[in-house]
């Protein structure tokens, strides 16, 4: 067996052990984060909440997330990924369940803020965790296997949200949107409790790997360090002073602006004539299914050819173009759905390829702090994006202007990611 085949076999073994659980966690994570976009179709009338207020409610999540992201990731280095994910998931699940009892916008402000506090550290924590197990030439594939949970959550979210809100509306005297939060929150609590037994903190402690396989992983990770063209930031202060980190924060800000707009996907379909909550969910499920396939193909191809730069450019441009073109499909449900599918497929492909890059420049506490800095400070896009779209929607009565602003930010982020970040060919094992 060739050297490359041996390496691939070891990382397949690792992936089969770790990735199904991490993928399931991320599906639940994103489902819980954006379910409010579906619930809004009912509670907006029930609780008399306008579009601008709804935008602020969704933005409250980012406030807590930004404040607690870096401390959570540094804590992961101390207590390990299993304990970190157990803490995060049980607390965020309980917060989602609590939303079923919301009586007004104040409840939502508080609970969305707490959701951000408790969820902070999950996404950068898993990316940091993957960097303990996968070298650069395997990281695109591993990252895509984890992050494909995002479009998968869209597939399930549309079907589950529409179905629950329609089928359980009025059950035990409660509206469907209240049951939706209960159904979405309970799996997070159960997965959090299971994390202690399902995950191993690092390869050296993995009982499912032989000594030779552990050494192969150690050698691969060390080889990545040896071929770096620039010094990696390994302390918190080195990371804070590293201009590449601040550039990646700006880029991530632009990608998150477009990322949060899936909160408005149900409202956009409703605005072009689709009134059934269940049908909106089913149409968006089809769009997310298409997105899942494109994401996996783009990330796997990036690993296969050993290239990131032009994959970032192609996917980012396609995403921006699709969202700029949305007004052309005004009045057409299927035209709008097709453009949303193209936009989200390429936007998340760019998003996932981007996240393979920070570990190349970071090590040790620098990796924990740097990945968390990018994720948390970039979330100012998550803070401002929903509020901007909601305010523009309230003022103009159209979602298209908000999408144009977000697409422009995505375009700028794509150009910076392509031409401002130093890119090198990926090392391949012999």
Structural description of this entry:
The N and C termini lie close together (11 Å). The protein has helices at residues 3-46, 51-79, 81-98, 105-119, 122-133, 136-147, 149-167, 176-198, 211-226, 236-241, 243-259, 265-271, 277-305, 309-324, 333-354, 358-361, 364-378, 380-396, 400-419. The chain is globular. The protein has one domain (3-419): Up-down Bundle (Growth Hormone, Chain: A), CATH 1.20.1250. The model has no long low-confidence stretch (mean pLDDT 82). It has 430 residues and is mainly α. It has 19 helices and no strands. Helix content is 79%, strand content 0%.
Give descriptors for this structure.
single chain; 430 residues; mainly alpha; Growth Hormone, Chain: A; 19 helices; globular
What does the secondary structure layout of this molecule look like, with pairings?
Layout: H1 3-46, H2 51-79, H3 81-98, H4 105-119, H5 122-133, H6 136-147, H7 149-167, H8 176-198, H9 211-226, H10 236-241, H11 243-259, H12 265-271, H13 277-305, H14 309-324, H15 333-354, H16 358-361, H17 364-378, H18 380-396, H19 400-419
Name of the CATH superfamily:
MFS general substrate transporter like domains
> By helix and strand content, what is the structural category?
mainly alpha
Oligomer state equals single chain
What is the first-to-last residue Cα distance? 11 Å
Helix content: over 70%
Number of strands: 0
C-alpha Rg (nearest Å): 21 Å
Classify the fold: give the CATH topology: Growth Hormone, Chain: A
Number of separate helices: 19
Shape, principal axes of CA atoms: globular
Strand content: under 5%
How many domains? The number is 1
* Largest beta-sheet details: none
Low-pLDDT ranges: none
Arithmetic mean pLDDT: 82
Indicate the CATH class: Mainly Alpha
Order of helices and strands: HHHHHHHHHHHHHHHHHHH
What's the CATH architecture name?
A: Up-down Bundle
